[in-house]
Design brief:
Length: 291
Amino acid sequence: MNYIDVSSLMKGCRNVPFRRVLCCALVLTAVGLSACGSKEKKAGQALVRVNGVEITVLQLNDELKRAGVKAEQQETATKQLLESLIDRQLVAAEAMRNQIDRTPEVMQAIEHAKAQIISQAYLKSIVTKIAKPSMAEIDDYFQKHPEYFSQRKQFDIHQLAIATRDFSNELKSAIESAKTLDEVASWLDRHSVRYARGQLSRSSADLPEQMVVKLKEMKKGQLFIVNEGENSMINSIINIKDSPVTASNAAAQIEQYLTNRKTREAADAEIKHLRSSAKIEYLNAPAPAAP
């Protein structure tokens, strides 16, 4: 029986190169909302005036960009977002009329958001100077990590998910004596333990290195447990197969990973530099332990 504690193994996830991260930016040009026959509106030109306060094309474009609107949805989204801007202006004006913006909670939230926006903008100005990874760097990473590319494995897994609070010693004994996942499911049924069936496929590029090492040591059909906070998964490996990736196909992924790593390192280095030249006094808070 193999126990894998995801809370510790998943700490290595930040170093896994190609976990899918849904992060994209859509740059949109100014949207002309003028009536037929009129000239195209310039960025910053007013679209609506709400009690004397103007809402501009620039504001609307910013909302479209933040929403990540697709080209085919732009016309509908434009109308909806413009009405949302009007609603927001009305609510904000009424809030300020009632001096909600002067309450301690709101003032603190504004200062927090302001500091975060400014610091992120500064770090962005630092990381934009980072050089793009060279082909030599990309090839070097490919050669040094065959487990992610030329020797990549795919693991097909079936699982039973249960609440961790239901993971009793009796269940552990049942799993240790069981030969298949169906036998475990039958035990859960007899003891009225709720569970959900699932299946997934993961490659060695999707998982922390420590977990990949564990999985490679296992045989098909072998049961193992993954603990993840309030939920626990009883797993069975159905299939392990080769899933190699060529250098040319992996190049774009490696470039993105190396870029992200350089960005993180540059940000960390700048913060370290700022800390080294700053005077930081811990008054009513304990100083961090030395590394």
